[in-house]
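Case study.
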Amino acid sequence: NAGVTQTPKFQVLKTGQSMTLQCAQDMNHNSMYWYRQDPGMGLRLIYYSASEGTTDKGEVPNGYNVSRLNKREFSLRLESAAPSQTSVYFCASRQDPNSPLHFGNGTRLTVT
Amino acid sequence: AQRVTQPEKLLSVFKGAPVELKCNYSYSGSPELFWYVQYSRQRLQLLLRHISRESIKGFTADLNKGETSFHLKKPFAQEEDSAMYYCALGSGYALNFGKGTSLLVTP
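After joint prediction, the assembly is written out as follows.
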């Protein structure tokens, strides 16, 4: 049972390049989330999807877009990467608001 | 606006000493509060949630609505408790985290 799988694990981009971070869960969870983790800033919510077909902005959505492709998959896109987007990105999922979040292993992104 | 505050970036205690990691929140509704932990080289995972009123690995947390706090406590710290601890506040489907407290338990 893989849980939450994120790809890639590492990525280096140049300023202005675009890329998509992939996330898939095999737990049949309804809700999925994208966070970024920065030193001294903790985890900040970028976007979330309460259920298939819906997405909502979190605390720091600027510069990102998301797609809930189906119940399993929730991707995060950077259209024009900036150095300020250098971070570790975590995807997570849960069944409902009272359930625990299950996290992926993270994607370490560096934008030069 | 909802907010979670963890005032301590780093907390260092000796093995066997009591531990209290502070968490304060601001939220106009009825809060859903959680503690998550990240051990070295492991995924973030749920430690406990206020609705369960449970004790996990010797840790407890009580919701104090009057003081808007949800502090995490353990009477006797162990070296394996060294980790990053995050307090989180749920608002509907959104879940927002504090900045985290790094706990270091030294022998």
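Observations recorded in class. The mean pLDDT of chain B is 92. The first strand of chain B starts at residue 3 and ends at 5. We will return to this complex in the next lecture.
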